[in-house]
Amino acid sequence: MFRKSKGKVLSVLLVVLMMVLALTGCSKDTAKKEPAKAAFKPEKPITAIVPASPGGATDLLARAVEKVWSKYCPQPIQIVNKGGGGGVEGAVAVKTAKPDGYTMIIGMGGGHDIVAPHLQNIEYKYTDLTPVARLSVNSVVILVPAESPFNSVKDVVEWAKRENKPVTASVSQKAGAHDLTAQAFGKKAGITVTPIPHSGGAQAITTLLGGQTTIGTGHPAEVLTHLKSGKLKPIGIALPERDPALPDVPTLKEQGVDVYTWGSVKGVGLPKDTPKEVVNYYADVFKKIADDPEFKKACQDMMQPAQYQNPEEFAKFLKQVTDDYGALIKSLGIEKR
Predict the structure, then answer these.
(1) What is the pLDDT of residues 204-219, one digit of tens each?
(2) Which domains does the chain have, with CATH numbers?
(3) Beta-bridge mates of residue 230
């Protein structure tokens, strides 16, 4: 009887073992047959929101992207300008868009991202978006009219100290990157710099051209025609290193004034929570665009040299720039409204 029971037990164990092996084999077969997750590829047009008015530096960069886009993406790109609220309107439109890869921002890293949040409470911050690529950095350049006796920042500082007179500076708007640069320049140089804010960059440059202020500030791309015509002289760059757009113009630091800002950054972003494969797809597209000879020439011609960064690099850069502006604003004693 014991032998019979033992035989039955062995038979049951053998059946169970065969069933386990069969199930394991099925699982492996099923795993092998599961299709790999398809890489993202857009199937309809992409909307690119530009948080600025037509004709400005950010818009011109987006149009340069548009011209070469079809070489690297099978679907067309549609540029939509939303410049309200100093760029916040456009950023919020992307923030609230579906994170499916069909709505992006070209102009991530402007004043609405890196300066405004330090000065006032707004409904948006740059971390509400996913960084995709940095395309360029628009520096702040110190300018004087062609007939000015000053040919360098050092000349301006020496004159102000010798004559004990204030330096007036024509800037695009109050508490913007240009205004902050002018204030920081005065503080570090040990002279009085009085910024004269305007309602925009064009008005500020008109004031400077009329000789109504000692110096002025601007982005190279926005004063391009005046630089080429010789009506304005660039005398200093407010970047840590020289600007490739104006390689012969020394930085403020080179001229004895330890000040730098980041001007306006031009990058690409997608809504938060956009899938990684979508982010990677567009990062690759914009890398190819940044390396495209036609695009690079267009950027150089408009004094916005292509300066690509991938998503990880761009995210770190945005944090650094935002922190730097925060520290600068604090050092100037400007309080948040």
Answers:
(1) 999 999 999 999 999 9
(2) 46-138+263-331 (3.40.190.150), 141-255 (3.40.190.10)
(3) none
**Residues 6 or more apart in contact with residue 270 via CB below 8 angstroms:** 94, 99, 101, 103, 104, 105, 129, 130, 132, 278, 279, 282
How far is the C-alpha of 266 from the C-alpha of 210, rounded, in Å?
Answer: 30
**Residue 100 · residue 41 · CB < 8 Å:** no
The alpha carbon of 271 is separated from its chain's Cα centroid by a whole number of angstroms, namely 15
* Residue 109 in tokens: 């890293």
Helices (H) and strands (E) in the chain, counts: 12, 10
Give 205-261 as a DSSP string. Answer: HHHHHTT-SSEEEE-GGGSHHHHHHTSEEEEEE-SSS--TTSTTSPBTGGGT-----
Half-sphere exposure of 23 (CA within 13 A, CB side): 6
H or E element, residue 271: strand 264-271
- Residue pair 159/291 in contact by the 8 Å Cβ criterion: no
Both structure tokens of 174: 């109050």
What are the phi and psi torsion angles at 169 (to 5°)?
Answer: -130, 120
Report which of 36, 90, 84, 42 is spatially closest to residue 62, judged by C-alpha positions.
90
What tokens does 8 get?
């039955």
107, 266 Cβ separation under 8 angstroms = yes
Could you report the per-residue pLDDT of 147-177, keeping only the tens digit for each? 999 999 999 999 999 999 999 999 998 889 9
Integer CA distances (angstroms), 276 to 128, 132, 173, in order: 16, 10, 38
Give the SS3 label for residue 173: coil
- pLDDT for 277-322, tens place per residue? 999 999 999 999 999 999 999 999 999 999 999 999 999 999 999 9
